[in-house]
Structures are given as structure tokens and as C-alpha cells.
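Let us walk through a complete example step by step. Step one is to write down the protein sequence. Step two is to encode the small molecule, NAP, as a SMILES string so that its atoms and bonds are unambiguous. Step three, shown after the inputs, is the structure prediction itself.
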Amino acid sequence: MPGKKTAIITGASGGIGSGLVTRFLEEGYNVVATSHNANAKLVDSRSLAVLVGDIGKQQTADDAVGAAIKNFGAVDVLVNTAGIFLTKPFTDFTVEDFNALVSTNLLGFFYMTQRAVKEMLKQKSGCVVSITAALADRPIAGTNGSISMITKGGLNSATMNLATEYAKAGIRFNAVAPGVVNTPMHPDDPNESSPQPTMKKATVEDITDAVIYLVQAGHVSGEILHVDGAAPARRW
Ligand SMILES: NC(=O)c1ccc[n+]([C@@H]2O[C@H](COP(=O)([O-])OP(=O)(O)OC[C@H]3O[C@@H](n4cnc5c(N)ncnc54)[C@H](OP(=O)(O)O)[C@@H]3O)[C@@H](O)[C@H]2O)c1
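Step three: the predicted structure of the complex.
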């Protein structure tokens, strides 16, 4: 619908992404929702355009921004949610793992953000929030995500650099760095036995609250907002 702000949300079929789609619609945004596979819960409406595509391909970014402009006339907010997370001992990571992480987590960010920023520059305003991971700079013994964190830590660095590069253009860049969130990426494992106390997982709402804060906080840019309940401090 014209007259409303428009947000593009990637990874929209997932636990956090679908929560973001619902929240942005509730907040009165038009939403372009994109993910790898269709999600039966996401259906086109006057305020929602649903797209499918591999985020590691340039075409997916072109399609998402094209849909935002065609349907709603602008791109005000981009939330980079699409991502994969692999954990294994460092010596077990393969080149295939590395390439998959780079394609989805880094190329996806690059294509989508570059395309969105080109639109935001025309309107001299915009806001990009990327979902990274607390593990990138708050490692926890026993959670071996070294290669995954090359990508998430890289996104944190890119966020801080882009915030500076585009400050005068009125475009803000921030990241939300979750700990463990209660989504299909981290299902409860009833067989999990650990001598350590179980950490409280964040809810999807904890993450959507943080994203909405960053979208609304007009003087906040270049920040990495951890939403992990101070997990390392509680665990060790
Ligand atoms: N859950 C956690 O504990 C946690 C912790 C820290 C950070 N995060 C980050 O939060 C973000 C969302 O995680 P989540 O928990 O919501 O995970 P999720 O339920 O597995 O959702 C991941 C989303 O990314 C999409 N995606 C994956 N590969 C893609 C590709 N090649 N092209 C397009 N879309 C692709 C998925 O689409 P399809 O379903 O269609 O494949 C899905 O929509 C991720 O970036 C993740 O790294 C999550």
C-alpha cells in the first residue's frame, strides 16, 4: 500500500524471519518477504509480496528490490535474516561447508544490501539490520562454529564500516547478534546431556523487539546489539 514504509525481509520462511514478517506487518509496514523455499503461511496480500529464490544469487536481490519498488514504491528497511549455521570441529569443516556458508551468509548479504542501498541512496534514507550471531565475538566452549563465524563476524565488521561510509547519506546499518534462539535452527534435543546448566533460549520476539528498536532508533548506527542473555557469563 502506498504511504506506508516498506521493509524487505530475507530468510522470511524461517523461525526469526517469519516472526519479523508478522511484526513488520503489525507495525504498519509493507513487506517483501523472500526465502529459499515457499512457506505456506506467507501469502501475497495488499501489504505483503512473497518471493522465492536462492539468496546467494544476484537475481534474488534484483527480484526483491524490484518487487518493493513495483508494489510499494520504495525500500525503507532491509533485514538480512537468511543464513545457515554449521557446527563441527574446525578440522572437520570441508570446502563445501565453507562455500555454502559464504554463498548464503556473505554473498546473500552482499547482493541484497548493495541492491537495496542503491535505492536508499535515491531517497537519501534507509536502514539495514543484519542478523549475525553472538558467537562471532562471544565464543562458548563446546559450540564449535569457527567457519560459520568467519561469515557472521564479517557481517559485524561490514555493518560498522558501512555505517561510517553511508552516515552522510542518511542510511543506517546495525546488526542483531542472537545467542541461541528457539527456532527450527536450534530445536530442543531431549537427548542432550550436558554437565553445564541449560542456557535459556531467546524467543523470536526477543529478536524482533531488537530489530524494531534498531529500525526506530534514528541516531543509532554501526551497533552490534547482542541478544544472548549474557550467555557466556552465565555458562562459565
Ligand atoms: N536460531 C538461532 O539460535 C540463531 C542464533 C544466532 C543467529 N541466528 C541467525 O538468525 C538468522 C535466522 O535464523 P533462524 O533461526 O530463523 O533459522 P531458520 O529457521 O533455519 O531460517 C533460516 C532462513 O534462511 C533462509 N535461507 C537459508 N539458506 C538460504 C538460501 N540459500 N537462499 C535463501 N534463503 C535461505 C531459509 O529459507 P528456507 O527455509 O526456505 O530454506 C530460512 O528462511 C540466521 O541468519 C541465523 O544464522 C540464529
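Step four is interpretation. Helices lie at 15-26, 58-72, 95-123, 146-165, 204-216, 231-235.
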